[in-house]
């Protein structure tokens, strides 16, 4: 734009300008700067173009401004207002040309030349801008429509996958857990000794709690925005306040579990409490699966900026050792091996860290630090 403007100033139609070179360079530099800024705002270019055309018949800035006007202004009112302003600029240019005579009068005050200049400098660039703007708007609308369709297809695929998972969980997992609850209830009714009755009642209670949690999960899978979420809100997820009940369930199965709290207990975010509860739950599940009757220590530490949870179990007692309670059968509780992986992901989502390691002597440590 600067080069074209300077060329027009230096010799339009073969007639050199009478402006000093520093003035020409200043006008050309201003036109180049305004053209560079036109992508953000083309009004400075339009103002410079109007002044340069009316006063000096320097048409490149006004031509570029007309293109941007056609591409960006609303129609029809915006375009009509811009064309009316351009006609006024051309009228002022004709008056100035009449006063100055020479080439400027020939270009601006002569009716044929004035119409030719208006068509070439204003009309055609506006039309080109209108056509380009229409193409850009159509391409943008097409891209937005394709994006919406892609999002809808992805959402439909997620909905179908959730429904499939919900069906599998209902048909397999819920059915099996229901059978466990039913058999535990039958054993509780028919058993003669008190210890078996208590064990059956405990198994039945845990099974019914598992069914309730499974029903909430199935409801979220099938209808995340519907009635299932309202029901889940009536049964809030477990927090640290429910930790003692979880430990009592493990104690009832023959595991010695101790709890030790450190620091000043204080309220923390519900998501942090739920994650801490899941850490203890998964660690105790692994003790049941792999360590049987091993003594387990649970430590909850309330730090200034984090909640630390540590579950450490001893090595399991040898089978048949004297004065040891019966152990939970090893290898009888299948697992997918993804418990600690999912737990680590849950902790890291909150910006925390999870550490698991085997201890000297055969024990195992699960330790989590969660920002709170």
UniProtKB/TrEMBL annotation:
Catalyses which reaction(s): ATP + protein L-histidine = ADP + protein N-phospho-L-histidine
Organism: Nonomuraea maritima
Name of the featured protein: histidine kinase
Keyword entries, A-Z: ATP-binding, Kinase, Membrane, Nucleotide-binding, Phosphoprotein, Transferase, Transmembrane, Transmembrane helix, Two-component regulatory system
Domain spans labelled Histidine kinase/HSP90-like ATPase: 273-371
Lineage: Bacteria, Bacillati, Actinomycetota, Actinomycetes, Streptosporangiales
GO molecular function, one term: protein dimerization activity
Record keyword Nucleotide-binding present: yes
One GO location term (cellular component): membrane
Pfam families: HATPase_c, HisKA_3
Region annotation (Disordered) ranges: 315-335
Transmembrane annotation, as ranges: 42-67, 79-96, 116-136
Gene3D superfamilies assigned to the protein according to its UniProt record, in alphabetical order: 1.20.5.1930, Histidine kinase-like ATPase, C-terminal domain
Family annotation (InterPro entries): HATPase_C_sf, HATPase_dom, Sensor_HK_TwoCompSys, Sig_transdc_His_kin_sub3_dim/P
Coiled coil feature spans: none
């Amino acid at each position: 734009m600067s080069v074209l403007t300077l060329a027009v100033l230096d010799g339009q139609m073969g007639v050199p300008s009478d402006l000093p070179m520093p003035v020409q360079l200043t006008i050309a530099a201003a036109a180049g700067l305004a053209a560079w800024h036109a992508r953000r705002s083309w009004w400075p270019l339009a103002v410079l173009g109007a002044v340069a055309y009316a006063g000096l018949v320097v048409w490149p800035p006004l031509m570029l401004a007309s293109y941007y006007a056609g591409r960006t202004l609303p129609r029809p009112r915006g375009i009509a207002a811009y064309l009316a302003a351009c006609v006024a600029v051309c009228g002022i240019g004709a008056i100035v040309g009449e006063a100055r005579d020479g080439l400027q009068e020939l270009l601006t005050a002569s009716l044929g030349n004035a119409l030719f200049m208006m068509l070439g400098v204003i009309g055609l660039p506006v039309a080109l801008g209108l056509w380009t703007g229409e193409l850009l708007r159509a391409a943008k609308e097409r891209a937005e429509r394709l994006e919406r369709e892609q999002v809808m297809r992805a959402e439909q695929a997620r909905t179908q996958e959730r429904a499939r998972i919900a069906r599998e969980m209902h048909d397999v997992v819920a059915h099996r857990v229901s059978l466990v609850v039913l058999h535990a209830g039958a054993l509780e009714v028919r058993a003669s000794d008190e210890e078996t009755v208590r064990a059956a009642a405990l198994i039945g209670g845990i099974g019914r709690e598992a069914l309730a949690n499974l029903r909430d999960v199935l409801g979220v899978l099938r209808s995340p925005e519907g009635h299932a979420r309202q029901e889940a809100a009536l049964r809030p997820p477990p927090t640290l306040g429910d930790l003692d009940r979880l430990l009592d369930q493990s104690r009832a199965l023959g595991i010695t579990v101790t709890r030790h709290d450190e620091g000043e207990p204080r309220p923390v975010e519900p998501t942090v409490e739920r994650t801490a509860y899941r850490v203890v739950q998964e660690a105790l599940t692994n003790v049941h699966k792999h360590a049987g009757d091993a003594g387990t220590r649970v430590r909850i530490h309330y730090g200034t900026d984090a909640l630390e949870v540590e579950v450490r179990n001893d090595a399991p007692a040898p089978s048949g050792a004297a004065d040891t309670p019966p152990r939970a059968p090893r290898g009888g509780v299948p697992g997918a091996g993804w418990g600690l992986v999912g737990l680590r992901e849950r902790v890291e989502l909150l910006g925390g860290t999870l550490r698991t390691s085997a201890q000297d002597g055969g024990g195992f440590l699960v330790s989590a630090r969660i920002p709170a």
